[in-house]
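Can anyone check this?
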Amino acid sequence: MSDKKLAGRKALVTGGANGIGADVALALAAAGADVMIGDILVDKGKDVAGKIARSGVKGGFVALDVTDDAQWSRATAATVSELGGFDILINNAGIEIASLLINVETEDLRKMCDVNIIGTALGMKHAFRAMRPEGAAGKGGAVVNIASVAATIAFPAIAVYSGTKSAVDRMTRIGAVEAGKLGFGVRVNCIYPGLIANEMGVRLANDIVSFGLAPDVNAAVSDVVGQTPLGRLAEHSDVADAVIFLCSHEARFITGVGLPVEGGMGT
């Protein structure tokens, strides 16, 4: 999508330094939004922000560890100050650590829960505070949480990751109800991306092989494609287009939903 349907909007994208987050941020900018990148990867985050600024809209970077409440306060304040508002939050930051349940490590459990669950909850907290009528931005807005097809299917080797993304789904729906009933003017939705052949997806395919669940990477990928009615892996642009839609006026009466962007894999 390249039209300017989000012109005048002000977005914060967590985990926007690379992967899905970077492409979503660039898509938001192409749709006319000013975009702040929030990430722990400073150099990469600033590079994406520079690309956004050179595209003709405002682009900025703020250091953000999504597990830290105080950093969220600073990030939302910086977004309002530097962009002149804040009405889109893309809660994209997340981590996946594959393991068979029989071998799962406590430290890995905590890392995924901290980033994927606590980070998402804190994002909604600070978005609501800034976007509600009495907030620093005060014009309402849209929150899009990035969940996963793993929240809807039983996929081996990522039980804990799947659990955290199921939590994202539940928090999305409750956040939508609260924001609506309390008059915040904020819509809250989530997306379930399918497996993508990016760094995270390739690492998972290799882990599947190392755990003895597939003979080789090609077989692991072929199994995923075989479970997908549309017959291919997901792409970053598929996710980015869905994000643009959920943030746009066309989705004005949509809140509290999980949008599958996985070619029917979860059907």
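Reply from J.R.: I decoded it. The CA atoms of residues 75 and 227 lie 39 Å apart.
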